[in-house]
Amino acid sequence: MSSERRPAPFRMPERLFAELATGGGSAEAIAFLERGERARRLLLLRTMLDRLEGMSTPLAPAAEAWQTVKEAASRAPEPVERLLLAPATGRWIAHVLRRLHSGSATGPPLWAEAGRLCAVAAAAAVHAGTETDLRVPLTDGRLHLPGLGLVCLPDAPPGTAVGRAVIRGGRLILTGPGRAGRPVTVACRPRAVRITGAVEPGSALEPHWVPLRTLTHTGPDGTVAIALDDLDPYRDLDVPLPPARLDADEAEAWQRLFQEAAGLLAGAESGEPGRLDPSLVRAVVPWGRTSSQPPAPPTVWMSASSGDSFGAMVISRPGTALALAETLVHEFQHSKLGALLHLFPLLDDDREERYYAPWRPDPRHLTGLLHGAYAFTAVAGFWRDRMAEPDHADRAAYHFALRRLQSRLVVRTLLNSGRLTAPGRRLVTGLARTLDAWLREPVAPDALARARTAAALHRTEWRLRNVAPGPGAVPRLRPDREHWPDRRTQAFAVRPTAPRTADEHLAAADPATALTHYADALTAHPADPHLLAGWIVAHATKNPGPTTRRLLARPELLQPQPSG
Q: pTM higher than 0.90, yes or no?
């Protein structure tokens, strides 16, 4: 892989854009996006190398480190290519460029962050079996080798320091300062390991080496390994993080769950919205848990991704493979759209956060709306496929009905915004066609009713919490708005068999009883937006008509006097 400028045209065929505009995309379309990301990565890398030229550093100069990378690439091009195109490498390059652009002095010394190039070069030499001798950055006595793992010097002082990495024939000898002022040296053969449930290979013989673990699944082309990254400082969305090593039981739980989730996704004809070849995922970053205790919640309560790290996703481990499979689909959509945004100006966004997003508690800007619409169109497709599975049919029908309805609402907002470019309008119009076709598909009446009720509840509570009462069609946001939990979207997924609470009666299609329960609760908490939203939706369900439609449209304008 070379960073030399190559003035070759890069144009997406219209048919591939049309595929992606449906919310899906064939293997050919995804491969094109990856080529686009490769081209962008090379441009950013070249820019970074130019900016680092001549920078004062106690490490090996950038030119020397890059020469090591090129020598390794000439011998082992595929692993070095994977290293340079890895998600965390993209996050690191973007982070350093932002620091160079802003002149920020926060965080580690700039020479240490820029010096990750030396660690990349060392990892490339390990992969290729070439020889090198580099001064590398250490953090608390640790050297992270991207895509491989972590070397830890014993009895090292805290903070940033300079070490020496000598690599020959895939063997690393690392020397750095110790607490007593004398150099400390360790040796190891760096390599990642698969999660097998057994003792990690070499752990007893190489106690100073912490390997990157990989999640594996077997696809049509053999076994695929995907990083379960709890070590890389640039694995998250922004600032560098220290390692957060999972214990062995937690890593094994991830492997079992991922294997089952990959099984759920595998086998379906690719290209349709909501379908994902699991081998396209490049890295899973576990968030919020290092131990398998206490048990994980049944749903994913945190997931995120970045346009700088195509194919990577930060996920809190759920307790079910179904929830993980849905999240893999959701987050990969963000990667696809991020890659499209790198190729096309899809919208003219003033970045003002004023729009309703049915899956968020807060107002969003147009780019956030577009990301949500693209992701949740695929989520709707994921649940559409699950409706044929007896174990998931009722829950799947609800989620399909809910997400197609919510996504179509956001698509309408985008089309009416006047801010879409010509490619952006083609993309959003393609989503509209997909969703309009799905809205004509039959769904079990009970699941459809619960989905419509849950959608109305979320929008009503959002307006009560975010929109200030006042005249005019353009909403004025409340200055005192704050984050609030959405406790209903998942709760309405299954019809309650023995309803007790107001929400449960509403989910069980008994709005009259729900209305009474909400009214009783509101006597003690008359301004509670959660209770008011329930009362308004129950009232509208029980008493349909123009008056209640106006109440649902602008709930913040009205002060209902709940009486049941």
A: yes
